Amino acid sequence: MALQSSFNQDLLREKMLSGLVDAYYQKNLRHYTFERVEDLNLQHRGVDVIFTHLHTKKQFKIDEKAQLDYINEDLPTFAFEICYHKKGIVKKGWFYDLDKETEFYALITSIYADAPHTFTSCRITLVNRQKLLHFLEDKGIGLPYLTNELSLRHGKHGKHDLATLDPNKEGYLYISSSNKAEKPCNLILRLSFLMENGLAKRLA
Questions:
Q1: In this predicted model, what pLDDT tens digit does every residue of 39-48 receive, in sequence order?
Q2: Which residue ranges make up each domain of the chain?
Q3: What are the C-alpha distances in Å from 42 to residues 56, 61, 82, 143?
Q4: How far apart (Å, rounded) are the C-alpha atoms in residues 201 and 62?
Q5: What is the rounded average pLDDT for all residues in the chain?
């Protein structure tokens, strides 16, 4: 019963946040319209919203990722999921999942609330998924490299530096082996690093 209650609470938070995010889209998407995806199959393939250019009608598939575990906090980084555990089996995370149709991530950070489930402001950073993947590959940080790094660390919990990333200005590896049931392994990247390299831009 507690798990169901938690699940319902998460859905409520996501619904409340989507209302705020839609308001930001309406204000800042000057050359695009947007439509929320209702198809669950498409949502599972990493598409929450579709942006359509007003003139060319070209469409872009957006996956929204929100820092809902960090309400009223202004984190400078975002976690890109490499892998996680489910029933003792290692599963590929959303960042490297080839079944995902995501073209852009809408990273929703700095989420502030005046009361529970009453969100008043946030930041939205749009990240070009393919550009980011290619950029990391060029730096030698592809899935095979990260998989090997994770194997060498044997699930050791905490922050781990990577050879080609400055941990203070760019990013690092983080293994959550002791504080989360799914034991996710994430590539933590600074938002400023993404924007400075033309991989992302701030929408709001």
A1: 999 999 999 9
A2: 2-202
A3: 23, 10, 21, 24
A4: 14
A5: 93
* Structure token pair of residue 158: 């905490």
Does residue 79 carry a pLDDT above 90? yes
Token pair listed for 19: 């209302």
Model pTM above 0.85? yes
pLDDT value, residue 177: 81
Q: Which DSSP string do the residues of 134-187 spell out, in sequence order?
A: HHHHHTT--HHHHHHHHHHHTT--EEE--TTS-TTTTEEEEE-SSS-TT--EEE
Show the tokens assigned to 69.
Answer: 């575990």
Backbone region of residue 5 per phi and psi (left: phi > 0; alpha: psi in -120 to 50; beta: other values): alpha
Q: What is the DSSP string of 19-68?
A: HHHHHHHHHH-TTEEEEE---HHHHHTT-SEEEEETTT--EEEEEEEE-T
